[in-house]
Predict the structure of DNA 3'-5' helicase II.
Amino acid sequence: MEVSKESRQHIEQLAEEALTQLGSIAAAAKSKLHDGRALGSDVMASINTMTSGATVQRLDQINQANRDSYAVLEREPAIARVVVADEEGEERTYYICRTTPITGFSNLASYRAPVGRLASLSVGAEFTLPNGDIVEVLERAQLRPSALANGWDSRNTVVEAKHFGPLTIESLRALLTEVVGEEVTEDLLGQLLAEETVKANIIDGVRRSVITKMGLRDQPVLDQYQDEIFRLPLDKRLLILGPPGTGKTTTLIRRLGQKLDTAFLEEGEQRLVEMVATAQGTVHANSWLMFTPTELLKQYLKEAFAREDVPASDQRIKTWQDYRRELARNAFGVLRTASGGGTFVLKDSLPSLSAGALDRPIQWFDDFNTWQRNAYVQELHEAANMLREAKVPEVQSLGERLHNILTQAGDGALASTFGSLAAELPKVQALVAGLKEASDGKIKAALNLQLNRNRAFLDELARFIDGLQQAQTTDADEQDELDADEEEDTTAPRTGRAAALNAYMQAVRAQARSAASKRAVSKSSRNGKIIEWLAERGLTETDRVEVGASLLVQTNARRFVNPVKRYLDGIPKRYRAFRRERQQAENWYHNEGFEARDIHPLELDIVLLSILRAAGDLISRPNIQRDIDSSAWSALQPFLGHYRNQVLVDEATDFSPIQLACMAALAHPRLRSFFACGDFNQRLTTWGARSADEMKWVFADFDIKEITVSYRQSKQLNDLARAMIRAVGGSEQNVSLPAHVDSGGVAPALLEHATDTAIVVSWLADRIREIERFVGQLPSTAIFVNAEDDVAPVAEALNEALSEDNNQVIACREGQAVGQESNVRVFDIQHIKGLEFEAVFFVGIDQLAAKHPALFDKYLYVGTTRAATYLGVTCEGALPPAIESLRAHFGQDWQAPASQQAGTEQ
Ligand SMILES: Nc1ncnc2c1ncn2[C@@H]1O[C@H](COP(=O)(O)OP(=O)(O)OP(=O)(O)O)[C@@H](O)[C@H]1O
C-alpha cells in the first residue's frame, strides 16, 4: 500500500533503530554466552570457607537461568518496541523481550515484568510504570526477529502509531535496502520495480498467518485482556471462559511460564513460595500440575511449553484418568493393589450409578460426605460410651472425658474435636499399651503351652493356613476386618512360622472378642476356620471372656489413639457402607447388578474428594499447620507431598465439578493458586461441568473472566460456529473478530449423499489439492472420523489418492500424533479437543448423531471450530436435521479466486 511520506520516513527510522538494537542485544547475549565466565566460585573465592552448599547450588541455578536467557536473546533479541510519553511529554522507547533482559540495555524489559504489559496495550492507552509515572503509549511495533547472514531482519512486523497503522511490514530490512536502492537506481525500470516492492512490503492492517504445523502457535505478545489475566497474582482462583480460539490455552501457558519464574513474582509471593519451599523441600519451578482431557492435547502443547522454557514432563501434565488412579491406588489406598490393602476395584463401565448421580453430582457428593462424617462421629460417640460403661474405673473416667469432648463440639466442628482429643492422646495410648501387653501376654502364654506339648504346632498351623482358599483369606467378615485392622502389623509376614504366629494371635483375639461381646465369628471367615482348627488349643473359656473384655476396651480406646488417621483412612469403607444403604432406597445407585468391591470412576472421584477435602480442611488451619509434626496431626503429613504451588486445568468443562474440586484440593493451601480455562459449549463428556454455579461450588471465590476475541477462525467459519450454537441451542456468547485483521476466508464446503468411501476420499483429495494450490504449500490439515476403526482405512485410501502430489497422510491411532513432518492427519473425533488446524475435514457428520446422541451437538461444534480457514464436511445422507438450517453457509468447493484466500496479499 501507499503510505504518506511522513509515515514512511518514520517507519524507516524505526526500522533502522530497531534492527540496530536487535543486533546489539544479540551480540551482547552472544558474547555473554560464550565468554564462559559465570557468577560463582571465583566471585566467592575470598569467602570460600563461609560458602554453603546451598549458596553454591543457588548460584548454579542463577547461572543456568542466565545462560538460558542469553541463548533466547541471541535468537530473539526482542519481541516488541514501544514508545511512550510521560506527563511532561518526554518520550521513552522500550524494547520488550521474552525472557530476562541482559545488563547494559536500560530500555530492555522482560514481557514477564510489569513493564512488559506495554507490549500488549494499544496506542493511546495509559499505563502506570512501577515507579508511579503515568505514561501514554504513542507507538507500538510487534517484532519477529530473524537473523540473516548479513544482519537482522524482522518479518511481518505490525506497527501502529497515533497517526498511522496498524500496518504490517513484511521485512524491516527490505525497507532500508529500498532506501538505498532508490538513490542509486538511475534507470526508470529499476525505479518502477523498486516502488512496487516498497508497496508490497507494507500492508494495511494485520494478516492472519497460515498454520503450517501441528502444535499451538507461538503468540509472544498477548492482547490486553489476555495480558491482564496472565499477570494476575499467583494467589488466585481463576477461570477463563471464552468461545473457541480466543486464546484461553495460550494465556494459560504464558501465565504458567511467568509464574514459574520467581524473579517475576511479587515480593509477598516470593516470600510465600520460599516459605513453602523450605517447609516442604519443593522447588517452585517443579511444583505445578496441569490437567488436560486427552493425551493428544498434551503432546500438542509440548512445544508451547518449551517456548516458555518450561520442561513439560509427563509428571507435570496429566489426564485426570491417570492421576485419579495414581492417587487412589498408590497414595490413599482406595484401590486394591497386588500387595494387599485398598478397598475397591476400579471398573470403567460398572453399572452402579443411577441418573440422579450423573445429573446431580454435587448433591450426591454432599450426601455422602455428610453421611460419612456423621458415621464417623457416631462411631466415636459409641466408643466413648462403651468406655464409660467399662468395669475398670480408670477406663470409665477416660470414657467420661472423651464423651464430654464429643458432646461439647458442635456438629461439623471436627477440627476442634480432633484438637481437644489430642490432649487425651497420651493417656489413651498408655492405657491401650498396658491392656495390650496384658492380653498379648495371656495369649502368648496359651501358645507356649501348646508349643511345649508339640514343637511342630506352629508349622502345622502354617501348613493349614497355606491350604486355606484365597477367597477365605481376603473376604473376611467385615467387622473382623475393621477390628483386626488396628492390631495387624502392616508389615505382617505372609509365610512361615511368623505368619502362623500372626494368624494365631488374630484368631484367638477374634474368638475372645466374640466371647465377650457374644457375637459369633463367622465360620466361613479365615479366623473362623483357624478357630475351628485350633479347637481347644486357644485360650481357656474364662481367659477368653477376660481377654475379650480387655480387647473390646482396647478397640474402643483405639478409636482415640489416632483419630485423624482413622477418619481419613476409613473413608473408602464408609463409602462402601453408604452405598449399600443408599442402594436399598435406589438413591444414587442401582439396587443390584454390581459387586460391593467394585467402583465406577465417578464414584472414585467422590471418595477421593471426600479424602482430599477432609485433609485439606484440617491442614489449612494455622494451628494444625504449625503442629503438623506432632503425633495428633502426623496422619496429614503424606498429603503435603501431593500439594502443588500451582494447579492448572485446560478444557475444564470436560471435567465434572467433583473432579475439578479434587484438582482444586491439590493446590497448596498457603498459595491456593488454581487456573482453569474452558467453554461450556465445548463440553465433550456427559459428566463435565455445565454451569458457572457448578464452578462456584468448587471455589466460592472463583474469579471468572471472559475473553471474546476469536483469533482462530476466519469470518466465514466464525459465522458458521455462531449459527451452529444458535441452531443447537447452546449458550450464546459474546464473540468478536480481532480488529484490523483481514479475517475474510472461504465458505466451508459440504458434500452430501456420499455413501461410498471412494466418493468421500476423492472429494477430500480434490479439496486438499485446492488448498495446497492456494496457499502454496500444504498447511496443517486434519481429517476427523467418527470411530477409531475408520482412522486407518481413510488414511490409507487418502494416501493413495494424494500420492501423485507426494503428500503423505498419517493415521493417528488412539489419538497419538506421530512426527511433525506430515501435514495431513486422520483422527478419531474423540481426541481432538483443544487442537487447531488450518484445514479440517469432518467425515460423515450425520453418523455422529447415532454414535454420540448425548453429545452430538458438542462434537459438531468442537470439530468444526478446530479449523482456522478451511472446513470441509461430508455426510453419508444429508445434513442432520439439527443443523439443516446452516446449509446456506456452505459452498461445494474452493475453486474461488486465490485473492479471497486468507494469508494471501490483497
Ligand atoms: N492475542 C492473540 N493474538 C493473535 N492470535 C492469538 C492471540 N491469542 C491467541 N491467538 C491464537 O489463537 C489461536 C487459538 O488459541 P488457543 O488454542 O489458545 O485458544 P482456546 O481459546 O484455548 O481455544 P479452544 O477453546 O478451541 O481450545 C492460536 O492459534 C493462538 O496462537
